[in-house]
Inverse folding.
């Protein structure tokens, strides 16, 4: 798969995700994981870079929603966003996190 084929597939997948979100049904965890894995594979295999993917996602997002990812995130206001959650507390095993009296 060449770079243009890869970009075309990412563009198609992300467009479908954005349209579904706009219509009220976001991707399932499985779909989201597959999409993220596909993009990660492109980076690992040297087909693309993170920067190129970010630009492609911005372009598709703007075409579907009429605003950038950052603008839309800001307009939605505070909420539970997966990317904003700090999971650092779970780095230690649960047995060590439990306080005993």
């Amino acid at each position: 798969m060449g770079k243009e084929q890869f970009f075309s597939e990412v563009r198609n997948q992300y467009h479908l995700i954005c349209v579904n979100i706009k219509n009220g049904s976001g991707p399932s965890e499985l779909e989201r994981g597959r999409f993220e894995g596909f993009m990660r594979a492109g980076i690992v295999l040297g087909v693309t870079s993170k920067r190129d993917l970010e630009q492609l996602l911005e372009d598709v997002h703007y075409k579907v929603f009429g605003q950038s990812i950052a603008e839309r995130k800001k307009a939605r206001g505070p909420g539970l966003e997966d990317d904003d959650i700090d999971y650092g507390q779970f780095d230690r095993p649960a047995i060590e996190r439990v306080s005993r009296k």
Notes: The CA atoms of residues 5 and 11 lie 10 Å apart. The two ends are 59 Å apart (CA to CA).
